Amino acid sequence: MSLHFIEFELNGQHVEGTAEARRTLLDFLRTDAGCTGPHAGCEHGVCGACTVLVDGAAVRSCLMLAVQANGKVVETVESLASGTDELHPIQQMFKEEFALQCGFCTPGFLMTMVALDRAEPRPDAAEMKEALSGHLCRCTGYQGILRVVDRLAEAGK
Amino acid sequence: MSEPASAIGARFVGKRVQRKEDRRLLTGRGTYVDDVIVAGMLHAAFVRSNIARGQIVRLDVARARAVPGVAAVYTAAELDSLDYQRSNPIFDMPGIPVPDNGLLARSDVRFVGDPVAIVLATTRAIAEDAAALVEVEYRAEQPVVGIAAAKAMPAVHAGHADNLVGTQDSGEDAEIDEIFSRAAHVVEETVRNCRQAHMPMETRGLLVSPDGTGELTVHLACQNPQFAALQIAHVFHLGQQQVRVIAKDVGGAFGLKVSMQRDEFAVVAATLILGRPVKWIEDRLENLTVAGQGRDDQLHVRLAFDSDHRLLAADVRYDCDFGAYPYAVQSPASLVTPMFPGPYHLPRYRWTAQGWYTNTSGMVPYRGPWMLEMFAREVVFDIAARQMRVDPIELRRKNIIGKADQPFQTATGFVLTDITPRETMELTVGAIDVASFRKEQAQAREQGRYIGLGVANGIEPTTVSFGFYASEFAHVRVEANGRVTAMMSTFSQGHGTATTIAQVIAERLGVPFEEVTVVEGDSSRGGFGGAAGGSRQAVAGGGAAIVASDMLREKIQRIAAHAYNANPESVRIDDGVITIEGSPEIRSSIAEIAQMAYIMPDRLPPDMDMGLETQYRYRPPQMVFANATHACICEVDVETGKVSILRWIAGGDCGELINPSIVEGQISGGVAQGIGGVLFEHVRYDEDGQPLAVTLKDYLLPTALDMPKVEFQHLCTPSATPGGFKGVGEGGAMISPPALVNAIADALAPFGKRWTEMPLSPDRIVCGLLD
Fold first, then answer.
1. Whole domain around residue A137: which residue ranges?
2. What's the whole-model pTM score?
3. Judgement on whether residues A102 and A139 belong to the same structural domain of the protein
4. Do B665 and A139 touch (CB under 8 A)?
């Protein structure tokens, strides 16, 4: 397997390294870049737990190769708030609405919601819900997550 | 709830306190097993059987061993060189032999995915590359797939006479046949659960790290680090202190991670042989096909009613497909039939239960493993109501027990107390205007739209406390700086016990919630206990925390009383501040008392030991019953078979709620799994025993678009335990399927069909209507 040099911006910092062509962005982020927030839930693009932002768009980092991130801007859940800072407003809503239990799927939901929150024109609640149907949560029955969607949609009006 | 001996400060129990766990999980700083890295660790990948049944005729690992980066490839021959035992000290059932085939398959394979070899390499990618180079040839045999085949075909396991795992029955009862022959109404039906996957978002996984002194540190996705340490020590003849199991965050479990399985033990064995750290993270294909599955059982039900629609007798036969390597078979096998009478007057009852081995992935208890008792009973009640032309809610009213009937002994001998089935049902159906719904339903039918209402009642034996689940442990201490630490044997895989247990302790001690830290997830720190399983942590863990905290509070009161020359009973503790009734000038703090306890022995009463720490092992009652009624309104599109859920009312009585938001999260999570099990989720096998649900595109789960807004109705009748708590973890998953199936059947009632075979996926509904 040939090794490729890659460099990209990750959470505001420059990162570089080498990756085999077959290596996923998720694997590179978790193992080489030390960002363990994105999780491997299915590794076939269905569950959404690995979602990160690449040039502002929510992508499944398990379906993207690390080499494809070369020259791009990548944001993971770690960028939303540091461990001691105030939480990002969407993280804060998740906490207030009990929108997580085991937390494994949560970073993916958060990143998609951040992308939706930044989108112009801003999607309404139904569109957000539709987008979130691409994420699986096995613990909560989605109740708290749907309350966050309602609050977020309300806040955008 | 019983008040503490001396009135104390702010109440935290019953409040929607935000979770302590959330900050790290929301910021991506949780520590799940795959986040842990140990220097020099190897990665494991398994070679697994691609046939359901057969003999290994050739196994050649030479090419795999030659791959650069591969440290070792082990087969059964290598692992069997270790002196291990295959028994499971916690979950083996007395009298039922453990089917043995080693940790890796020896001469034969018994399901698709049976582990045949384990490859250890410097990266996971290399391990998988090498695994693909292991050459295995099999002589295939016709596999046993399904219960009917299990009854007829040769034994799955060598040395077994047949495929029967076990059989139980209630004994001869000639009179019951007499009752059925004379009954005004007899209703008969079989309800079948399809096989389902637990599907925690985090798969199974472990990282085993040996150190030079013969000790193992095991990072493990599990439900109970204590059980796992005990199991590993038992299987490999190690001392208990040689095994430390750590689990910080676990991404859901739902029963799947109660016990380690053969492949996980194979990883431990490989570590022991090679002497290097090994990580194995299950992939989703493995998780869906080999991790173990749930449900896949059927209950044949006959009910006899008198002319006034009162239940006279029930006669049921239970069969469960346990797969090839099940564990904890007792949870469905020994609870479905005993729990079948539910919250109803049932004068006469006969039952038989049998479990069967098949060439499929093993049965692993899945959230409410005995839910078929509730599911089948409530579905057949609705079938009975339609057959007898009586309203299904009215039929339940005629037969259900209420508060006034208790203590009530069920037909199988359980004594029900402190539950409210009748009252909860009335509360739940009261949230719906049933009369106007029926009008709306009639009008809709005229327009070719089919809406239906389904109601189901159930009681759940929570905190079933026997054997390894008999107790829970709390060590609570006020540290020298006044902060409170609780070392608990509870463990959360999303349950939020670091929050709920802290609420309980903060309230009982009279300290701020923020100052209580609950430590769990490390077998070397907490004491032994049952942890997660059987809806037990609120009652068992909460009970241990309450008693330990009360003991500690009494000591604080005695120290303060001695220091300030007062009676212990007059010492008040609130928000960490200590005051003396009748002496407003005195104001002390928990921190000050802690200093006295740890560094100023002269300030203590002369007969008192130093320190401010207690421990208590709580033994709950044998079981603590909770009850629920769920009601669902749905619409079925008869052209497409799509079911849309329009309303969901979740009524329940799980005693005093420690944190209503966490309770509601447990209920709605269970409801989602129940809805999934009715509408989408199906682990199918073909006739060759090949699993057909191998990705999340084949195994469909409910999404945010499929879930209704759940409307909660709580009754809070305290149980006779220290906090008045009851369990709530499993009930939502058990009660939701019959509520939904009854709603679908009610919607489709004009078609005169019965809907008893899960899942009721669109194709099944459309085909069922065409039949």
1. 89-155
2. 0.97
3. yes
4. yes
